[in-house]
Structures are given as C-alpha cells and as structure tokens.
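Example 3.2
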Amino acid sequence: MSKGKTSISRVSSYQEIGEYWAEHDLADSWDQTKPVEFAVDILSEKIYYPLERDLANELSKLAHIRGIAAVTLLNLWIKEKLREQNA
C-alpha cells in the first residue's frame, strides 16, 4: 500500500480500510469517485494438467532460484519445446 492515505476513507492501512468500508457505503461518497479505464482479457483461459509431485517440487525449486513463478517457468519450457517440435 502507498505511504499516503486512501482518498475516500482517509486511512493508511488495509485493516483500517476494511473497517471503514464495513461501516460505510460507497453511495455516500460517490461524488468523490472518478471514472477509470482498464482492459479485461475475457478470452484467456487456464487449463490445468496434473503434474507428479516430485516434478512439481523440482520445478518450484528451479523457479525460486531463477526468481520467477513456477507456472512461468513451466510455460517457458513448454513454449520452447513446442517451438523445437515445430521447427
């Protein structure tokens, strides 16, 4: 969280934010909001494949050493292997 206070609740910790919004309604502060734009990728999809526990442990160790998430390392390796197969 940034070091400042939130714009509506005027608090500076996640705990205080939760407490504030548990007792307040956004409708009371609607005039303090502003429109924002953001992109949503509704076409992405995750498919899960089982992985042997030993392989998953090794993957996690190697990913940690490289400073990336295990899922990122796994996807990089699969992309690399698929490129090799299609070459």
